[in-house]
Design a protein that fits this description.
The structure is a homodimer. Chain A is α/β, with parallel strands linked by helices. Chain A is built from 16 helices and 20 strands. In chain A, the strands form four sheets. Chain A has a seven-stranded mixed beta sheet with strand order 9-8-11-10-12-13-14, with helices on both faces. In chain A, helix 12 packs antiparallel against helix 13 and helix 14 packs parallel to helix 15. The two termini of chain A are about 25 Å apart. At the A-B interface, helix 2, helix 5, helix 8 and helix 11 of A face helix 2, helix 5, helix 8 and helix 11 of B.
Chain lengths: ~475, ~475
């Protein structure tokens, strides 16, 4: 089946089959997502028992809608799904998001039978289906939230797509992403993957989605992993692919079987296969976000020589440890850079790498000048820049943000750590994060780790492109 | 020298030598910490050039104060410190916090000489000195913020003491602790450790500080690590000791030399020595906070059998992987518990371990009943409880918090993950975190990891007590 996904993700009009005014129905929350997410196209609630849903005219059936419908979001009970899919086919919708659960993932074998049945119907009409057993998708680039979680409309827009086998993981990662200001293009759970799986999505994101620069995958288990790996291997262009594989343990494996209907498989084989396919493996949601963010907004890290500049010596030492733990090295500054640093910092500070910028606390201009000197040094490949809030340096990050407005993006990755109590530096950090090639992470340890991932990702992508 | 620390940390009166009305002086911020931190004793600003500081009468010298002074916080320039210390001795202050830097940590050998000189003066008057080259200390139990960072007065009160060789680490850890609602007793940086070092602090915290249940140490390098290790080994009672050792790399080692005047030493030797001393080693600030929090508020984990209960299957699988990665096992429920779960959850959910509590989204009572059954099961040693926010389950955590008001603290550790966008569930999470033996961590991966640390900490403490 030749799957066309562009219209599914960029619909002009959406029907919600099973739309509801009752808070305890998912059809309520899907309507809320579309309405409050300020979807610009037409929204058609469908429910034979209502005249209005969310103050919009409600239709008794999909067929009763006179205008064309691009996307149908299905939230009716599982037994009604076959009939609903026939209606979708007849209405010539271009895509379906099937939130309804109760198919291949349940213990009862009737679920498997029902999934086979709806698979045939979808094939008959050539209907691409996200799900069943999904929370839906959000396309932040196009501005549509076709999910039961309205809060995903708060996600920053950006270049990162998350394709997950689990809706719960999207919620975990999505909310962590909000807190870390990660920029998202698309976020979705594939659920039971009736006819749209990882390979189809990968192809779509690589070839048809210009906004996506980094593709992140959360995989529990696949019946045919080879398809995904081949799709990754043949992905041209410069997009990075990151994968998080769960279900590593025996118990996890059997949980995966029940969760989205596929065995998890041997983790060690997965590990090697992902590397072979040029995919960066991560082992936590936090690592995934740190790496994806940096790959999205920073220049590539093309070598292992890292400079650590810190407003406090301790966090600088921690970052230096983390750099070496990640298999990278602390750069040795060129004489020119060292001169600049020695001019800007008094001899009471540690002026080799890691640099203790303590004496520049009150002096954002010097901090910025040291940062620029470290980035421009031919002996460095990337820079970690750290500042802990202390009452006396409260103006530092604001002044830095001000100065940085007038500079070109850094041609090497700059990973920054700005730690402060809640309510302090927040606007300024939001302004700096993602701008001018800077990505902010929460701790010095994670700054070192993400540098390691940046270098690995670059090597993996180059290997993939060279094939 | 027989060091008495209790009065240093619980002063009735504090003099700030170098108090200032100028924002760009640290003496301004120390005054702010004391005044805004609502210190209940007397505050005496000392500065010959001012009549009033922070609206308090200013004294020309320490000697000019008529009342007794328990604690002197020193923020004058280094060359004035010897004279100031003499004054402290004559005034019979019970302790000194020396924020002033420019001693053993600087490149210039004059620093070393000056530190030797003030060491002799302190010994002459038997003056215990925190510092020099410290940001100060905060005693949340007693209610005194003797540091240049007023925001530390926002730290939750609790049973965790942080003794750090680096002020920057206190700021990193302190602000992360605020975001994670960690309860702090004392937070301090020892700086150059003129005469108060880790062994003295450990003894004080174990023997004299009832509020402290968990002692966390951040160590860069020590001239005589054996003293600390012996102090830890001989620490009686049930207090846990956690250490984070930085300066692991060669470069870090030389940075440590300049930062607080001691070589970092061989990391592998440290690793073994910490374990021998019954100290739990952690390798990141986040891990330190997760472990300390759980040790402070949860019952001990006395075995490896963990139950994972999750409102979403994906995060449950991730936690299950993390449990096994931490060297623990997924518990097999007793028939009674399994019956309870099967009664409360329909067969469409995964009901073995990890349990998918998806169908109990709208039903906090069932979620709580499953949690209680899992905790009471003789086949479990600890429980991980996970809920991701989704619009439809917005009431879950509030109802849980409500139900839990009436239950006894859990007799086994319960590590919870509640993930939501900012502004949602925040109050409820704050209410649940730390109450009834529950500790909240940010991700399922960290829930599994902290269970591993709980078990290790218990084994290490028992080993220490058995010696």
């Amino acid at each position: 089946m030749n799957i066309k996904l562009k219209s599914l993700f960029c619909p002009e009009s959406v029907a919600v089959i099973g739309a509801s005014n009752s808070f305890d129905k998912l059809g309520y929350h899907v309507m809320k997502s579309l309405v409050e997410g300020k979807f610009k196209g037409r929204i058609f609630p469908v429910n034979p028992k209502a005249r209005e849903v969310w103050s919009l005219k409600c239709h008794a059936s999909l067929g009763a809608i006179e205008e064309p419908v691009d996307l149908a979001v299905v939230v009716v009970p599982a037994p009604l799904v076959p009939e609903t899919l026939h209606e979708c086919g007849k209405k010539q919708v271009k895509g379906v998001v099937m939130i309804t659960a109760g198919f291949r993932e349940i213990e009862d074998s009737k679920g498997e039978t029902l999934q086979e049945e709806i698979g045939k119907i979808a094939a008959m009409y050539k209907l691409p289906v996200i799900g069943p057993n999904t929370f839906g998708y959000v396309n932040r680039t196009f501005g549509v939230n076709a999910s039961f979680t309205p809060e995903f409309s708060r996600l920053n827009r950006g270049g990162i797509a998350l394709v997950s086998q689990s809706g719960g993981f999207c919620h975990l990662c999505g909310f962590l992403a909000m807190a870390q200001r990660m920029g998202v293009s698309k976020l979705m759970s594939l659920g039971n993957r009736l006819n749209v799986g990882f390979p189809e999505l990968l192809k779509h994101l690589v070839e048809e989605d210009e906004a996506t620069r980094v593709i992140t995958l959360y995989i529990e288990g696949l019946d045919n992993p080879r398809e995904l790996l081949e799709a990754a291997k043949s992905a041209r262009g410069g997009k990075h692919i990151i994968a998080y594989k769960s279900g590593k343990s025996e118990k996890g494996d059997s949980a995966s079987r029940f969760h989205t209907g596929s065995l998890a498989g041997d983790y060690q084989i997965w590990k090697g296969a992902l590397r072979q396919a040029g995919i960066l493996e991560v082992t936590s949601a936090e690592q995934m976000i740190d790496a994806a963010k940096a790959l999205d907004v920073c220049a590539p890290l093309t070598g292992p020589r890292i400079a650590v500049l810190s407003g406090q010596a301790g966090p600088g030492m921690i970052a230096a440890d983390a750099v070496e733990k990640a298999g990278l090295k602390l750069a040795r500054f060129s004489p020119k850079t060292q001169e600049t640093i020695n001019r800007l910092l008094p001899p009471i500070a540690i002026r080799s790498n890691p640099v203790d910028m303590g004496p520049a606390w009150y002096d954002a201009r010097s901090s910025l000048d040291i940062l620029r000197a470290a980035v421009e040094d031919e002996n460095t490949d990337g820079v970690i820049f750290i500042a802990m809030f202390a009452s006396a340096n409260v103006g530092l990050v604001k002044a830095l943000a001000e100065y940085m407005k007038n500079i070109e993006p850094f041609p090497k990755p700059v990973i920054a750590v700005f730690t402060a109590p809640s309510g302090i530096w927040e606007e300024e950090i939001a302004e700096l994060d993602g701008a001018r090639g800077i990505s902010v992470v929460p701790t010095p340890e994670r700054a070192g780790a993400v540098m390691g991932d940046l270098l690995k990702a670059d090597l993996l992508r180059n290997k993939r492109l060279a094939n």
